[in-house]
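Saturday, quiet lab. Running sequence design on the structure tokens for the scaffold JK sent over.
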């Protein structure tokens, strides 16, 4: 080989090596820039949707008692829904900041003697049982006596909770003879989980039978056989202005009320014994519920409306919390085998619809869930009459815990490697 050929060969090798170094360097620079851009964000965009929403909530509400815009520490239910997701994300990632966030809720709300801040047993408000789920988790982890005492107090509420003549829990003492769909979610997962952890033998059997009965009673008294949807509430006495004088039913199908009911069923099954005869009935209710819900799902967006069966009426809107709750109920039911795989398509369409239409991302990576109904109920002062106009005119806001919590839970179900 002559000298000229050697020079050409060496030059070619050097050029190739230089080019490779340049490519590696560019890739490295690009990777570093990406890492730097992620670390500059409060919520990195390369995480799963579940964790991104939890971090966004923690950024908005640095202490868990602040969730859902609480101005001072108050024993109420929305925090527990977000913290349910936080528990599952902690178990999955082991990141201590998530556990600390959950633990901080218990530390703040439960006094050293086991009394619960702002809680009044004598009000017999079933909403107040839901945050007991957080204490069940913390007691299992930390075995603190104060959590056990608080749990026993909440369990005693169930024993004294007023009931209809056939045995359904009143929603609150101030709402006599009224059964609301919301109440099934507020009370039954806690009741079932507590029973599993603390009761044995005949006491446990009696409790499980009572829990299943609550769902049987709702199916009997609140179901619209024509559509398969369930009304928001039923007044056994038929005295309320919102109640139909013949049936006692409220006049509309409110999205989130149905959402609460769906979540109640799938969450109760986590703790109801496999051999309990009521399991099969609840699973059949989930099937009928899902069929009805899918029929009123918007074909284009995949979302659900504030008033479920009136999508075209003036003022109705695609509502975030109900949409997230339905997605969670259906996808969890598919994952658990309560529903066939074919139902996954509706859940996926709904989930993608939420991400596309209802979620916005700030420059710092923080997620916002928009178009959440802030609150809706019946009766009270000023009087809520359950009319279509009432539901569509309640306040709409972003980042309501009653929407972000179910979105985290739904995301976790989609992120599972089954």
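Result came back. Writing it out in full:
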């Amino acid at each position: 080989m002559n000298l000229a050929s050697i020079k050409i060969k060496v030059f070619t090798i050097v050029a190739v090596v230089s080019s490779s170094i340049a490519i590696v360097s560019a890739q490295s620079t690009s990777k570093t820039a990406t890492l730097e851009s992620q670390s500059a964000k409060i919520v990195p965009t390369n995480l799963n949707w579940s964790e991104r929403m939890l971090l966004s909530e923690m950024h908005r509400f640095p202490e868990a008692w602040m969730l859902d815009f609480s101005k001072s520490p108050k024993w109420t239910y929305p925090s527990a829904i977000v913290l349910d997701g936080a528990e599952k994300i902690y178990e999955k990632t082991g990141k201590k900041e998530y556990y600390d966030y959950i633990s901080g809720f218990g530390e703040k709300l439960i006094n050293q003697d086991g009394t619960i801040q702002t809680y009044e047993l004598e009000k017999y408000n079933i909403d107040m049982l839901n945050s007991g789920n957080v204490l069940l988790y913390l007691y299992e982890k930390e075995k603190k006596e104060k959590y056990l005492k608080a749990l026993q107090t909440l369990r005693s509420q169930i024993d004294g909770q007023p009931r209809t003549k056939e045995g359904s829990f009143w929603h609150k003492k101030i709402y006599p003879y009224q059964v609301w769909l919301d109440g099934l979610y507020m009370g039954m997962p806690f009741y079932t989980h507590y029973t599993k952890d603390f009761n044995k033998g005949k006491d446990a059997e009696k409790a499980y039978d009572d829990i299943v009965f609550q769902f049987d009673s709702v199916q009997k008294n609140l179901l619209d056989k024509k559509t398969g949807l369930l009304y928001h509430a039923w007044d056994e006495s038929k005295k309320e202005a919102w109640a139909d004088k013949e049936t006692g039913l409220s006049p509309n199908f409110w999205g989130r009320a149905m959402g609460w009911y769906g979540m109640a069923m799938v969450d109760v099954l986590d703790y109801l014994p496999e051999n309990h005869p009521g399991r099969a009935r609840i699973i059949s209710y989930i099937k009928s519920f899902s069929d009805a819900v899918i029929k009123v799902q918007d074909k284009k967006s995949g979302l659900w409306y504030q008033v479920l069966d009136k999508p075209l009426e003036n003022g109705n809107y695609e509502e975030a919390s109900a949409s997230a709750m339905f997605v969670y109920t259906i996808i969890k039911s598919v994952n658990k085998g309560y529903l066939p795989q074919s139902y996954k398509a509706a859940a996926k369409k709904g989930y993608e619809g939420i991400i596309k239409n209802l979620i916005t991302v700030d420059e710092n990576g923080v997620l916002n869930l928009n178009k959440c109904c802030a609150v809706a109920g019946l009766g009270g002062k000023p009087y809520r009459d359950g009319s279509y106009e009432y539901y569509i005119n309640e306040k709409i806001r972003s980042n309501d815990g009653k929407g972000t919590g179910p979105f985290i839970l739904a995301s976790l179900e989609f992120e599972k490697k089954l």
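Notes for JK: The chain has two domains: 1-40, 50-415. The beta strands are 178-180, 233-235, 359-361, 367-369, 372-373, 396-397. Ask whether to fix the surface positions before the next round.
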